[in-house]
Design goal:
Shape: globular
Strand order of the largest sheet: 3-16-4-5-6-7
Order of helices and strands: EEHEEHEHEHEEEHEHEEEEEE
Largest sheet: 6 strands, mixed
Strand content: 15-25%
Number of helices: 6
Oligomer: single chain
Number of strands: 16
Helix content: 10-25%
Structural class: alpha/beta
């Protein structure tokens, strides 16, 4: 984002000094001095104008400027048969609050353009009501990935989990609630596990890993990123999360002004946990909640190319 400074030529209407003493300024339009009242009035107008421009951008501009983050992620436990897998991760759509079916259709097109092998959605498909997903089932159904489409529920998805689960399932997503699914390719296997929400559900990692063969590379989907400090105590090799929205409002040198409980430590991007260095990726989300604003925190679609490393 470019920044502009405003003002005239420095010293253009200041008296000049010379060996001969004071030289009166030339008469003319550019030589008039600004009164204190004019200075305060123009200063106030500048502040108000900047606020309106920034507010308009944060409301109508940045929430619509999707950023696609593409990066390669080395994983030493990943089977060779899955090296090069394109995993598309999205989160926090919040349908019903500042996002509708039209917005989701644009996101789906971006996902399709990335030609994913595997799609993971990490919760908060709606902001409040499961019914807000109804008109978008056919849109989500357009997504295809040879290794499958997987989803978990976020803290905003718990008003009617049964209906929401049925709608997500109807759109082709496998909803994982303390469950896992084995994916086989080229004689190798990996697992995708999903936990219930930390705030409104009952996450049970023991139940999620039940049935996964020992030593299997396991990808964990958990809405709240701070749960990674608990998850690293289990045989998970990568965690994908959302929830934080990156803070939605960020300021230079300060960063996120506020993040919800469950995302105070891990807020945006790639981290490694302290004890086992388990990689964790936190997606900033597609939608907004509480206020329809974003500033210095664009909505995100993440494309991870998994490598052996």
């Amino acid at each position: 984002m470019s920044k502009e400074s405003f003002g005239g030529s420095p010293g253009s209407d200041l008296p000049a000094a010379s060996s001969g003493g004071y030289i009166p300024p030339e008469q003319g339009r550019g030589s008039r001095k600004m009164t204190r009242r004019q200075f305060l009035t123009r200063g106030a107008a500048t502040v108000v104008g900047a606020g309106l421009l920034t507010g308009g951008y944060a409301w109508k501009g940045e929430p619509n400027r999707l950023e696609i983050t593409r990066r390669e992620l080395p994983l030493k436990e990943l089977p060779s048969a899955f090296a090069g897998t394109r995993l598309v991760h999205f989160s926090d759509v919040h349908l019903g609050f500042n996002k509708d079916a039209g917005d989701l259709a644009r996101l789906v097109q971006h996902i399709k353009d990335e030609k994913p092998d595997l799609i993971c959605f990490t919760g908060d498909i709606v902001d409040s009501y499961a019914e807000d997903l109804t008109s978008s089932v056919s849109i989500l159904a357009e997504l295809e990935a040879p290794l499958g489409k997987y989803a978990i529920l976020g803290n905003h998805d718990y008003k009617n989990t049964e209906l929401l689960t049925r709608l997500l399932t109807a759109s082709g997503f496998r909803v994982l609630r303390n469950q896992s699914y084995l994916i086989r390719q080229g004689g190798a296997v990996i697992a995708v596990a999903g936990l219930d929400d930390m705030l409104h559900g009952k996450p049970d990692p023991e139940a999620a890993i039940k049935g996964i063969p020992d030593g299997t590379f396991t990808l964990l989907m958990m809405h709240e990123p701070d749960y990674a400090d608990t998850a690293e105590g289990y045989p998970f090799h990568l965690q994908l999360s959302g929830h934080s929205h990156g803070g939605q409002i960020r300021l230079p040198l300060i960063g996120a002004l506020f993040t919800p409980y469950g995302s105070h430590k891990y807020i945006d991007g790639l981290y490694y946990t302290e004890n086992k260095a388990m990689p964790l990726y936190v997606n900033r989300g597609f939608g907004e909640t509480s206020m329809p604003l974003r500033f210095m925190c664009r909505p995100e679609l993440t494309v991870l190319t998994l490598r052996r490393g």
